[in-house]
Amino acid sequence: MENSSTAENLDDNPLSAEPGLKGADYVVRVLASRGINTVFGYPGGAIMPLYDALYNSPVEHVLCRHEQGAGMAAIGFARASGKTGVCIATSGPGATNLVTALAEAMLDSVPLVALTGQVPTTALGTDAFQEVDMLGMSLSVTKHSFLVSNVEELPEILEQAFQLANSGRPGPVLVDLPKDVLLASCASDPSSNAVADTQPVALPWNLCEQARELISQASRPVLYAGGGVGMANAVEALRFFQQKTGMPSVLTLKGLGAIAPDTTGYLGMLGMHGTRAANLAVQQCDLLVCVGARFDDRVTGRLEGFAPDARVIHLDIDPSEFGKRRQPDVALSGDLNILLPALAVKAPCEEWLKNCEAMRYEFRWRYDAPGETIYAPALLNTLSQQLPDSTVVTCDVGQHQMWVAQHMSFTRPENHLSSGGLGTMGFGLPAAIGAALSRQKQPRQDDLVICVSGDGSIMMNIQELSTARRLNLPVKVVLLDNERLGMVRQWQSLFFEGRHSETVLSDNPDFPALAQAFGIPAQTILHRHEVDDAIQTMLNTDGPYLLHVAIDAEENVWPLVPPGADNHNMLEDI
Amino acid sequence: MIKLDVMAINRQAVIERILRVVRHRGFHVCGLNMPTNTGSADVQVELTLERAGYACKTPVDQLVAQLIKLVDVVQVEQRS
Ligand SMILES: Cc1ncc(C[n+]2csc(CCOP(=O)(O)OP(=O)(O)O)c2C)c(N)n1
Fold it and tell me: How many CB pairs under 8 A join A and B?
């Protein structure tokens, strides 16, 4: 939630409106009045007035080294803190470089406000230097977008932008700011009206009663929860519901952390790389209670074969998810903090819970792989056990991402930042920077941030090592180097007859030397016996660090539900 | 043929936004009618749609649910 306390103190605020203030100053005053003290961006021609207004302002601007880095850092900031992420770019190439971050925020429902420079209104539509129709480009990757065509519109548009980014199902909002609008005089004060919370809506008792009835009759129920739980600040409500109903639980990639890992009947992640226990339980269940999740194709496998015997209760803030992939028997849209307690009735499922616990034990992870090469799942598990609970772990996309989800433990969803919907390589490092900034406390007491990356992904936003160094952030990169685009290589091995087309990265740079060139200490490890010491060195080093870990090029992620298969037909190491 | 009446607030790019959602969610515009409205706060759009081949099973309700999520769309009704 945003800190609105500064809004009430506007009179004491040195940024309170004075004659001579411009549109750009107004934008900065809005940020300050909303308690947004950190923004991420990269300057350029059209946005220069805003950078001028940021100069000496109380809003800290973090200069990233690529606009995509700035966008992803703002997302990391938002996801790790629950606040709004703000990123800034200039017109044309600066703005187009933000597009992937907008799509990322769209698919993972992250409250993000992007402020982009634009050519002056007088030059709009003339193919002016660095003019891109950013409003047009934003339509498919934002929840909403605005082109401010007159400074008088600025107050209302900014108000709406922040409100929309955070309301209902959160998402990205873009505000395109022509240079003359930023330079036009604008002496009004940001309104100090706190955004009205959505009015509590009366619960649809009928539907609640139907849901309670389904739960109280289910002998094999499963709770299936996703990223919506964390976004709604409903972790406690979900845990209360789970305890009261007594049902086993599974989580999506984005839900990890919403149920504490040691909870009885918690079976881990479901879906393509989920645990065998989670997938088998869902396939066998008679009732699936889907909370803040959306039956994504990575979760369901073959949709028609997913949880074939289950009745479905679906709870989500966004009613367009109901029936989009799976028809629910009861669907309830609203605040999970209100819905979940209203449905918390005991399910008659003690036997089933025991069965699920037995499955969890039977299919527990094993870390006894033979040999001296470093086994990535074991390394991640060892690392996870040594981290304080408040640590944030970000990751990139590929095999290492799935190993993080499988082998590291999370007690809060905001501590596991993974690019879920878009699956964006290059997310991990800038997201870690944003997360670290959002968790700054006392010097040396900041929350630690681990970024687990792959040798392919890290190169997509490697320039952000510079940002981590500049700010001396406690971001520790664990780079799992298989000299491959591992996840694609795995699919080529399994489903394309081993034709490894363009997935060999044996000419990677010397990663420790590269880190050191950015002023970041680094170390390579090649053998299993080096792991413990290397982890200690990394954790004991102040500021950023890169641990370069050589792993087997042929290692695969197991289990795997192959494309088009039902979730109980998982492939295992063979 | 599917007929939808869309009522929306007459703001920046509202028609583009509606048409984009229609296309992306698997429908094809075969008719579009929008009365001239200068200076009015609302726009009324009548859409006549077909399903694109890949969306042959998508219920119209799904399209309506996506359209209503657009910030400026106020109401969507299906006409028989
Ligand atoms: C920006 C982007 N481009 C391409 C892909 C497709 N892709 C998914 S995983 C992957 C390989 C990732 O390799 P690496 O980062 O080394 O991780 P590994 O799988 O080896 O752990 C690729 C190319 C993607 N997800 N994102």
Answer: 29
